[in-house]
Amino acid sequence: MPELNKNDYLEAIAADIRAALDRQGLTNTGRARESVKVRNRRNIIAVGYIATLFQGIGRSPGKFVPRQALRDWIRQRGIQFIDRSRDNRPMSVSSMVFLINRKLRFFGSRIYRDRRRGIQIDRIIEKRNAEYLPKMARELKNTYVKEFNSTIVT
After folding, report:
1. Please, which pLDDT band fits residue 2 given cuts at 50, 70 and 90?
2. Which is nearest to 56 in space by CA: 117, 106, 12, 100?
3. Taking Cα atoms as reference points, which of 33, 53, 59 lies closest to residue 118?
């Protein structure tokens, strides 16, 4: 049996988080997905705003989103608004950023509002725990039994 280690476990969780971002369509600019990494074989790290993508959390009302992040998102998605007050001409990106930011500030994100969409981080971890913990327990048991047996023999 190949030796299990914490890094394999963390890498599997990080891969599951990236896959969940893809499945949910939450990889607009790709920055959040690419930021999910295992650091120093001990921790999973990601950009700070990734917590707003977790189910039941989202971005709550009250704060503005960084303007550059919204610009990137608008360009990535190819979003265009039509300004009816200006002969149905396309609205500028800066105007779209302002309007989207204002809505997020007052209402929060869709993940926050409907509490359904988003990454189910608890299910990802539970799934990996169910897979890895029994294997880790068996490995620990085998290691200690071998160590114990070697001390009795000597």
Report:
1. very low
2. 117
3. 53
Q: Is residue 43 part of a domain?
A: yes
**Per-residue tokens: 14:** 């990080």
Report whether 4 contacts 137 (CB < 8 A).
no
Domain of 35? 1-59+111-144
Separation of alpha carbons 62 and 105, rounded Å: 5
The tokens for 117 are: 């969409």
C-alpha span between 81 and 109 (Å, rounded): 19
Give the C-alpha separation, 147 to 97, whole Å.
63
Phi and psi (nearest 5°) for 10? -65, -40
Residues 1 and 50 in one domain: yes
> pTM for this structure?
0.64
Name the average pLDDT for the chain.
Answer: 82
pLDDT band at 25 (very low <50, low <70, confident <90, very high): confident
CA dist 77 and 74 (Å) reads 5
Q: What number of helices (H) and strands (E) belong to the chain?
A: 6, 4
